[in-house]
């Protein structure tokens, strides 16, 4: 199992950018697809983006398409989420998660196994 630690969250203004990082421990990071989810207060945890083990086929929720970019560096055991043109509705705790194989099989919580503890992103208007 892989252990995940997110970082990079913070308080920003609408229109600003942030880059979230998720550092993984364990030698098998490159074997897993990776994903990002987010959870706003009082709401369910929602899918944001996913990427396959090789860094190919990034997939995004419609709400972030064109503004967020997922990427990974297998040499550094790290997956990133670049957040641009942030909106107040992007405010949430952001979680990274490891998929159950080389390729992501879906965008539901059940399609991902290991989870990080989350990092808070707050966007003020």
Task: Tag the structure with descriptive keywords.
single chain; 125 residues; mainly beta; seven-stranded mixed beta sheet; four-stranded antiparallel beta sheet; 0% helix
Description:
The protein has strands spanning 3-7, 10-13, 18-25, 34-39, 45-51, 59-60, 68-73, 78-83, 92-99, 112-115, 119-124. The protein has 125 residues and is mostly beta strands. The strands form two sheets. Strands 2, 4, 5, 6, 9, 10 and 11 form a seven-stranded mixed sheet that branches. A four-stranded antiparallel sheet has the order 1-3-8-7, with no helix packed on it. A hairpin with a 7-residue loop joins strand 5 (45-51) and strand 6 (59-60).
Number of strands: 11
The span between the termini is 39 Å
Order of helices and strands: EEEEEEEEEEE
Helix content: under 10%
Strand proportion, as a percent range, falls in over 45%
Q: Specify the overall morphology.
A: globular
Q: Could you provide a short overview of the structure?
A:
The chain has 125 residues and is mainly beta. The chain has strands at residues 3-7, 10-13, 18-25, 34-39, 45-51, 59-60, 68-73, 78-83, 92-99, 112-115, 119-124. The chain contains no helices and eleven strands.
